[in-house]
Amino acid sequence: MGRHEERQEEFREFAATRGARLFRTALLLTGGDWHAAEDLVQTALGKAYASWAKVRRADNRDAYVRSVLVRTHLSQRRLKSSGERPASELPEGAYGDGDPALRVALLQALAQLPPRDRAVLVLRYWEDRSVEQTAAELGLRAGTVRNRSMSALAKLRDLLDGDRESLTTI
Amino acid sequence: MVQLDEQDLTRVMGEVVGGVRPSTHALVEEGERRGRRIKARRRAGYSTAACVLAGVVAGTSWLGTQQSTPGEQMRILPGMSAGGPGKVTIPDFSGAPTDTGTPPGKERATARTLARTLQEGLMLPLIWDVQGYQGEVAPRSHYEAIAALRVGAGDTHFTVGVTLHSQFHLTPHVERSYSCDALKDPNQTVFAGGGKVTTCGVRNLPDGSVLRLYEFQQGHQVTPHADLLRRDGMRISAGVSIASGPESGGRAIPVTLREVEQIVTKDRWQVYVDPEVNERAKSLKPFEELHGIADLIARNETD
């Protein structure tokens, strides 16, 4: 097997094992827009493929590609005027056994946050990144991440206030 | 208000998307397809610059379409050898300066500055005009940069370029690079477009640095190239490349082997310059900033 084929195989293996996780992150980032999340992951994987020689040398490939995913999302959000589609349009059955009411409530609330705030929450609480790591991945200062995180969480609480019933299942 | 704290949010997110099962196969397949497209676009973007700079960057393999056929005869230039281990002495780099960062009051030379230095070292007959400049400094810790002038007269156009690579002595198998045989080795050198190296020679200069000169023939045009490894570890290459198609024209290229030798051996090629030097070079117009060329050349990538 030549070097090119080896690297291609390496990329495929990486993408196949990390694709689902990246997609879940993308789904949260897009406020539950399944199609936009697919598109986002495919774009991020495409960028990773095109720069695989660089990605494979990274200390943490997962973090590298996730950072590509998040930055791609933020730059797409700047360019696109149309917003995400509501969570209600999502294909049923693809979500597994989770509570549909809880899912809709959270994704709709996330969708109402500014994209950068959403990215901060997703990285901090879904990806379990520290303030400093989140700051590095988003190209922000740690203090900014701290402030945005607090204010976004408060906003999310407000938005979810009307969904008290679904959230009591937590 | 719902008491959603940080731990709760982590749990809720996990509950909401943790069970999601996307079609991984579709993600990988489409991701790869998009990646190929990005690479194709990138190549297309590079191709113009790559083709015109091809002659400058012998020693790289990413440009490639055709290399000189191994075994083909090339003439060794008078007073020089074929180079390679035993034929030339690679400088002793133990005393080479270590790059400790930008000295106070200096800054890295920009690609425009290199282009300006190149222009100043080129004595073109009046009939030839410099019609544009291009260049790039790769974003790397050591200095890797490329600059080129696009020159034209009537329907004949050519590009003369220069590349600088500091700390080149740290590259593996340096001694093998400074040989004429390396120009036949497809692992080390591939020239864009058809053609062959017709003459070559390697020798040590009085200060110990190693100079390789060669000429490359494409159709009826012969272009000169020079490649110098200085005692401070800096590699400087310069050469001429002709655009393909009707642009190649019929006029003979007015740059000689001697002139490219003089270009690379100038002591003005420095990594760090006074800020006003870069400032002055800003007047060069039109200048096209390249993206990724220098980096690709340095990384010697083929994919």
List the helices and strands and how they pair.
The complex is a heterodimer of chains A (170) and B (303).
Chain A: H1 3-29, H2 34-50, H3 52-55, H4 61-79, H5 100-111, H6 115-126, H7 131-138, H8 142-160, H9 164-167
Chain B: H1 6-17, H2 24-53, E1 75-76, E2 107-108, H3 111-120, E3 129-137, E4 144-153, E5 156-165, H4 174-177, E6 196-204, E7 210-218, E8 221-229, E9 235-242, H5 257-264, E10 272-273, H6 275-281, E11 287-289, H7 293-299
Parallel strand pairs in B: 1-6, 3-11
Antiparallel strand pairs in B: 2-10, 3-4, 4-5, 5-9, 6-7, 7-8, 8-9
What is the beta-strand fraction of chain A? under 5%
Number of individual domains of chain B: 1
Largest inter-chain contact set:
A-B, 55 and 40 residues
What is the H/E string of chain B?
HHEEHEEEHEEEEHEHEH
How would a crystallographer describe the biggest sheet of chain B?
A: 9 strands, mixed
What does this structure look like?
The complex is a heterodimer of chains A (170) and B (303). By secondary structure, chain A is mainly alpha-helical. Chain A has a single domain (3-167), classed as Up-down Bundle (Butyryl-CoA Dehydrogenase, subunit A, domain 3), CATH 1.20.140.160. In chain A, 72% of the residues lie in helices and 0% in strands. Chain A has 9 helices and no strands. In chain A, helix 1 (3-29) crosses helix 4. The longest helix of chain A has 27 residues, at 3-29. Chain A starts with a helix and ends with a helix. Residues 81-89 of chain A have low confidence and may be disordered. Chain B has 303 residues and is α+β, with helices and mostly antiparallel strands. Chain B has one domain (43-299). Chain B has helices at residues 6-17, 24-53, 111-120, 174-177, 257-264, 275-281, 293-299; strands at residues 75-76, 107-108, 129-137, 144-153, 156-165, 196-204, 210-218, 221-229, 235-242, 272-273, 287-289. Chain B has a 9-stranded mixed sheet with strand order 1-6-7-8-9-5-4-3-11, with helices on both faces. In chain B, strand 6 (196-204) and strand 7 form a beta hairpin. In chain B, helix 3 (111-120) crosses helix 6 (275-281). The model of chain B is unreliable at 45-52, 58-71 and 299-303 (pLDDT under 50). The interface between A and B is large, with 55 and 40 residues.
